[in-house]
Amino acid sequence: MRHFTCVQDIGDIRSALEKAKYVKENPYADQHLGKNKTLMLIFFNSSLRTRLSTQKAGMNLGMNVIVLDINQGAWKLETERGVVMDGDKPEHILEAIPVMGSYCDIIGVRSFAQFENKEYDYNEVILNQFIQYSGKPVFSMEAATRHPLQSFADLITIEEYKKKERPKVVLTWAPHPRALPQAVPNSFAEWMNATDYEFVITHPEGYELDAQFTGKATVEYDQKKAFKDADFIYAKNWAAYQDPNYGKILNSDRSWTVDTQKMALTNNAYFMHCLPVRRNMIVTDEVIESPQSIVIPEAANRVVSAQTVLKEILLELQ
Ligand code: CP
Known about the structure:
By secondary structure, the chain is of the alpha/beta class. It contains 12 helices and 11 strands.
């Protein structure tokens, strides 16, 4: 694997899970792979888990790690080609990317959807510029349309906690005060569709995701019906995808908050969320603090997913 941006890049999903299991059980076994190799993590947006877990993954593999927050200390970057640069952006991304590439062996990029232009977001312009111009392997640390390291960690977590071979997994929309990208739900759907799980997506009308990600999932507009007999509840907010409402909040209906009454409809389901989570908007205190909440082990598995991906890229570089 040279680049990692989506589920297809990881190859066979069963084999990827076996590799992740080995990494989790033997976190320091592959330090020779990263010796004298530099990992560069570029953040266009804020992060807690991705920043720390990916650094830890790199260090576990013996790598040197450089982290750059583009909006804190770097020159403001122009991203459009052909612009007369007489404004407040002194550097063009088309110089900045190959320069960054010259200082490292692998680059991770976080660049969210901006909700100004759907085509720009869904073409993954920033991530693809890094792939095109850095000259180095690039992996996504959440881009405009996907968050594959999160989804891989989610899948690892479900495999660890599932009590039956083919669990029912429900992705539920939940309210949030800000317009959030579709990257996490898109990506989660894509990874769930790579398994043989029973996979259901529930959301209010108007929040339909791009069919290229939802694929064979069942879409159920009645949240309570969707929760029935679920083994895993994965909560997430997202803004509207469909035109003409792309990037908009259509409602903030608190009746969609995940609470104990709804969890009681499930098969004693585990509660999951990628974090950060808005308590008592997305999920009540009672549910996230309950024994069925696995958000912390889910976040801990972010090291495992990142390390498994980095190891595969390092193997390619040997
Ligand atoms: N889940 C996740 O990606 O968390 P951060 O935004 O804190 O990295």
